[in-house]
Amino acid sequence: MTAEFKQRLAEGESLDSLLPEAFAAICEADKRILGMAPYDVQILGAIALHQGYLAEMNTGEGKTLVATMPLYLNALTGKSTILVTANDYLASRDAQEMGQVYRFMGLTVASGVAGSGAEEFTNADKKEIYASDIVYTTHGALGFDYLLQNLVTTARERFLREFYYVIIDEADSVLLDSAQTPLVISSSPRVQSNLYGLADFFVTTLVENEDFETEDKAVWLTKKGIQYAETFFQIDNFYSEEHFEINRHVTLALRAHTLFQKGEAYMLSNKELLLLDGSSGRMMKGVKLRGGQHQALEVKEKLEASPENRSVAAVTFQNLFLMFPKMAGMSGTMADAAEELRDVYGSKVLVIPPNRPKKRKDLPDRYFRNADRQIRAAVTEIVRIHKSGRPILVVAASIDDTESVSEELMKKKIPHNVLNASNAFWEAQIIKEAGQKSAVTVATSIAGRGTDIKLGKGVEGLGGLAVIGIGRMANTRLERQARGRAGRQGDAGTSRFFVSLEDDVVGIGESSKLYQCIEEKKKISRQRLKKIINRAQVSGEESGTMARKSSVDYDKVMQRQRNLIYETRNRLLDGEELQMDKILKMAEGNISRFLKSEEFADRQSVNRYILDNISYHLGDADGSVGFLMEDYETIKCYLIERVKQRLEEQERKLGSGRSMNDFMRVAVLSAIDEAWVEQVDYMQQLQAAVSGRATAQRNLLFEYQNEAFESYDKMKIAVYRNAMRNILLSDVFLDEKGKIHILFP
Description:
Blueprint: H1 2-10, H2 15-34, H3 40-50, E1 54-56, H4 63-75, E2 81-85, H5 88-104, E3 109-111, H6 123-130, E4 134-138, H7 139-149, E5 165-169, H8 171-177, E6 183-189, H9 195-204, E7 212-215, E8 218-221, H10 223-233, H11 244-258, E9 266-269, E10 272-275, H12 293-300, E11 309-315, H13 317-322, E12 326-331, H14 338-345, E13 349-351, E14 361-362, E15 366-368, H15 371-387, E16 392-396, H16 399-411, E17 417-419, H17 427-433, E18 440-443, H18 459-462, E19 465-470, H19 476-483, E20 493-500, H20 526-573, H21 580-596, H22 603-613, H23 632-654, H24 657-690, H25 700-729, E21 731-734, E22 740-743
């Protein structure tokens, strides 16, 4: 049937017209191979995914099975068809399980992530993987593969096919919660700055609301703070170009102390600082914050600052997935962010009804004065439910909270498992046991998304899984995900959240009038208190939305530059012929810039320019030529003539126009890569520095754009200069097999 479908597509039939038959075929294959026949609502979800919607489907509705239908249909085109999952485990599992169905239908399938303990994929391995009809991978693996693809030096090293269709599992987490953490590939370490320690000490002397202010996950120095910084560092202008590094390091240290909290944003393990995924709570091994922010955090925690590596390539998830002509996604919590998803990605959210009515009871939240009372009350509830034999999942907002709950449960002699970033290795086993009778599982939001807790024998009759939330979470989507662990596929279950006025999201301190107003107090009604706390969460969500939109705006600047560079690289890799007149025109521009610069001063400077840029031989015995220094055009013509002579020499070495063109393409490509690495690294530093300029009514995006465009113009000049040097000064020759060997200057 697959061959027939492909033939009909080749003859001009559309995917939409094939959909009924193709879906019927793959549904039958699902039934025969997996023993699972898709429900009507699952088919409805599959249609939505094919049409490019972001589909909201409840937990336990079988999203993995849903994806088989649109993946099969779109793979019939022969174009790149990819499903992006939340983690390596799911990508490998789904590729193996669902792969049986695709292979039965005559398609190839592969996993884009290496298994546990397996060696990293080579370019040849990746080429084979991405050549498959259907690929299961993670958003991180796909993003890094895209960046690595654009670092190759020859066309045969490329392994990605042109992007076509992608389904993103847990789409709201990837497209929203992870959107601000760019994927960055680093190379050699830059010269380590000695300003981290000094900037950190300076920041510890600042007074909040006097020297600096914070708002909406941003922090900046006040006018008083800027004056203090200028005095402390003995400089005249904190924002001048010459003091860029001081400005940057102070901003990084200030952000480290105010915006990044241990146990929420990062954790320490064996004297190493590890980042935590904000939406899942998982450790992000090998991932570091850009622009020196990671090093600033390390210094804050009294660790030795790790080498600050130079950024050579970077991309955000927003721009990565916008490269797909056809993008779809699925999650249990997308409707709440429908407007933002439409604005940023142009994608509409469609809510798919559940196969069975929800039986889970979402009980009213409970409110407390402080964290101690909050934890004690939650533990009391856990003990009460535990006596009934029902399994319990405790979802806490931070690692510290999981440890506090665990300590209290040990005092009560309640056996339990703890699942957080520290022991995520055991995630699969812990989740497998979480739905069994009398099981108690304490976890961060790592268990709140992408996990499928199946009820053990007899648990349904006891009331199903009980979800207890500790603390108000960063957004309602995370809370809905946590609640959704219970009541899957119409199962029984309950959920209740215990909220404290000390929760980070609420942000109400002891000085607030509300601090004393809790359950038994009559100064303010419970309903009023609920509104205030919920409003705090809404405010946090709005600030998060603004931050993500700002991130999109910033990255658009980078994306425009990245597109131009990558398009140029691809043309060169594909064998674009470089006309000699273009090379001469580039050389003429370089020479004109030299003659207008301060470098051009005397006859010696001209000779120096020849030696550094054109030829290692001056030509004349004494290096002099018969011209006056005021005779601009004569000097220019002389230098251009020297360029022509050197080009002829290089061409004679290579013996043919084709070899010369291949050599010039490699030389230009090397110049582009060298300059682009510097530009990417500078852009990373610039964004970090600009974020601290929130005073004096500054338009930060405007400043970033201006400085980014200025640096891009400088980069282009560097490309032209280095390309010319590479072509003219390289030692190049052909071996016996006709292979070109190049030693760049």
